[in-house]
Amino acid sequence: MIYCHFSFLQAVLGDKSLRHVQIGVITTYDAVDERVEEMVRELARELVAKKCVVITGGNGGLMKVLAEEISRLNGICVGILPSELEELSYSHPLKHHYNTVEIRTGMSYAARSSIVVRSSDAIILVAGGAGTLTELAMAYNMAVPVIVLESSGMLASKLRSLFPDGYLDHRKIVKLEYARTPREAVEMAYVRAIERLKVLGLSEVEVR
Predict the structure, then answer these.
(1) DSSP string of 131-167?
(2) What are phi and psi of 125, to 5 degrees?
(3) Domain ranges of the chain
(4) Which CATH code is given to the segment(s) 19-200?
């Protein structure tokens, strides 16, 4: 694990003048079946192929599966750790050493989720529980696009019925979108991220 070592990041990411797309993955640390784990590994491969910087909550579970595959492929995964995880041993099931960069926030789980969301140009939602639902609500309020990998189960499989028109409330800030496969999720998230960066004024900057 590298702690914000700039020369390392520059070597991996290439030209420092380029703004890399940052994709957040919000998901669960609970146990899931192997099918979903393999979906997450495929998601990692697609994100690395796009040269995305991946932002997660840094926990165990599917966040560990994602970070491990990204690490294997020499990609970049940034884990935004809550204070509850900071002092845990790396042998603890909720902590791991696969994050390329570890941000120790000193904040609670819910508070650090705002950093995960705010740092993401677009978000992919995989499986998930109550914590993921909190992050989804934050993303909606911050107008961060969210792509739901619907076939990953848990929360992801319930959102279409919970929000039939794709919006979390009457304000219709940003519409949920659904993907059938990890590749489709990454393609959709990447497009939405580029669109958002342009809206934010980066249209004249080359984005990777």
Answers:
(1) HHHHHHHHHHHTT--EEEEGGG-GGGGTHHHHSTTS-
(2) -100, 125
(3) 19-200
(4) 3.40.50.450
DSSP 61: T
What is the phi/psi pair of residue 76, to 5°?
-120, 120
Question: Which regions of the chain are under pLDDT 50?
Answer: 1-13, 204-205
In 10 A of CB 34, how many CB atoms? 7
CA-CA distance, 140 to 125, in Å (whole number)? 12
Does residue 174 contact residue 199 with C-beta atoms inside 8 Å?
no
User: Considering only CA atoms, which of 57, 44, 52, 47 is closest in space to residue 103?
Assistant: 57
Cα(first)–Cα(last) distance of the chain, in Å? 23
- pTM score, whole prediction: 0.90
The amino acid at residue 152 is S
11 CB neighbour count, 10 Å cutoff: 9
